[in-house]
Amino acid sequence: MRHLSYTNKLVKNAAGRVLIEIGQDYLDNGKLDEATAYLIKSLKYNEAIKDTFNIATCYDVLCYLYEIQGNVADATKTSYDYLKMSEMMGDKSAIAHAAHMLASNYQALGNQTEALKIFKKGLQVSLESGNKIEQINFNISIGDLYIAENNFEETKRYYDAAAIIAHELKDAQILAQINRSIGNFYQAQDKYTDALKNYLTAESSYKSISNKQILQACMRQ
């Protein structure tokens, strides 16, 4: 009987996952109404069977759907629920992802205080997990918030932290992103020479990435 109960649970969990995948497929094909219907149905189903992983996945996909629709209010609520569920599961990667989504939605609503609070929370989680890419993204996002407030000292601190990690990883695309942000930092202070220098460095990195991709494509032919 115990084996049968476990099998039934697996079947129910799989059914909940299928509903999410159908909703995701509709979303990928731009059929937003159908995607919404299936994802809401999936969320209710997975809540009924108490599948926390599937519930968290529903929140993740629904948040992305609401953002596409420009529904910032529902995107914010859903990303908040996603963060809380991820924290309950203890999944640091999901916590960081949900935190970035929630903070970005707060930012879109104009709530810079909450956005900054959640971005910093996500940064701390990424430091604990050792995820360097997440650390870069959070440092840049926090720096972007500070630059909007003309707090250039804090902006520089977080951009510098992102740049140090990016140089460690030696990732051209990330370095280009950093240089572009630093260019914005100098432009906001009317330091146009330094801004141009960083913009040109970013452009050079992007061209390097593009040329490398073209070369790799030619070699595969």
A few lines on this structure:
With 221 residues, this protein is mainly α.
Could you please describe the fold and organization of this structure?
- The chain is mainly alpha-helical.
- 89% of the residues lie in helices and 0% in strands.
- The chain folds into 2 domains: 129 residues, Serine Threonine Protein Phosphatase 5, Tetratricopeptide repeat, CATH 1.25.40.10; 91 residues, Alpha Horseshoe (Serine Threonine Protein Phosphatase 5, Tetratricopeptide repeat).
- It is built from 10 helices and no strands.
- It is elongated, with a radius of gyration of 21 Å.
- The relative contact order is 0.06.
Q: Write down the secondary-structure element order.
A: HHHHHHHHHH
Number of strands: 0
Name the shape in a single word. Answer: elongated
Helix content: over 70%
The Rg value, from CA coordinates, equals 21 Å
Which superfamily, in CATH terms, is the homologous superfamily of the largest domain?
Answer: Tetratricopeptide repeat domain
Q: What is the residue-mean pLDDT, rounded to a whole number?
A: 89
**Low-confidence spans: pLDDT under 50, at least 5 residues?**
217-221
In CATH terms, what is the fold-level topology of the largest domain?
A: Serine Threonine Protein Phosphatase 5, Tetratricopeptide repeat
Q: What's the tally of helices?
A: 10
Number of domains: 2
Give the name of the CATH architecture of the largest domain.
Answer: Alpha Horseshoe
First-to-last CA distance = 57 Å
The largest pleated sheet is described as:
none
CATH class bucket of the largest domain:
Mainly Alpha
Structural class: mainly alpha
Strand content: under 5%
